[in-house]
Amino acid sequence: MMYILDLLGTATFAVTGALAAGRKRMDIFGVVVLGCVTAIGGGTLRDVILGNHPVFWISNNVYLLVATLAAVGTFLLVRYWRVPMRTLVYADAAGLAIFTVIGFQRGLEVTGSYSIAVVMGVTTGVVGGMIRDVLAGEIPLILRREIYASASLCGAILFALMHYFQFPGVWAVIVAVLTIFTIRLAALRWNVSLPLLRLEEER
User: Fold this and answer.
1) Which terminus of the chain has a lower count of CB atoms within 10 Å, N or C?
2) pLDDT tens digits for 131-175?
3) How far is the C-alpha of 101 from the C-alpha of 97, rounded, in Å?
4) In a domain? residue 66
5) Closest by alpha carbon to 181, among 12, 11, 4, 7?
6) Radius of gyration of the CA atoms of the chain, in A
7) What are phi and psi of 27, to 5 degrees?
8) Coiled-coil stretches, from where to where (predicted)?
């Protein structure tokens, strides 16, 4: 199940990268590059930090194939059908949720530490989107007022608690993914953001 979920997250994030490239009117090469970098960026950093060599998409090139096909498929789709840009928001939220759970699981398997696993979950979830936004010339979502990394963090902590109290694995995954997805979309729907630090300059 986790492997299928991992491939689904890879495809989903590749779609967000391709859509972001489309908004910047990139050619098919740019679409594929942005799609692949978005799909594998977070997992690559996670594996490097954890010392997993070779990284996941080198040891199993199915990930790169799935990301490429998803990006090319998105390129072809948007040439013939008008895809609502809201699709990017939903796909990004789904990718964030799935990759957070996958990253947590990988981190826990390697280290056995819940705190490190939570960090690896958030890293896997947000880094791909950060790279996508930087390459597309946008301010990364994690640096904006929007609730993004904090949604990933909440889901990762919830997943850690369910894992610690031995909730059934399938239900723990489903609940964690839906929690992250819901928090992210609810924050966008009602324009919820974290408190800001405001410093008054001396005159």
Assistant:
1) C
2) 999 999 998 988 877 899 999 999 999 999 999 999 998 999 999
3) 7
4) yes
5) 12
6) 17
7) -80, 180
8) none
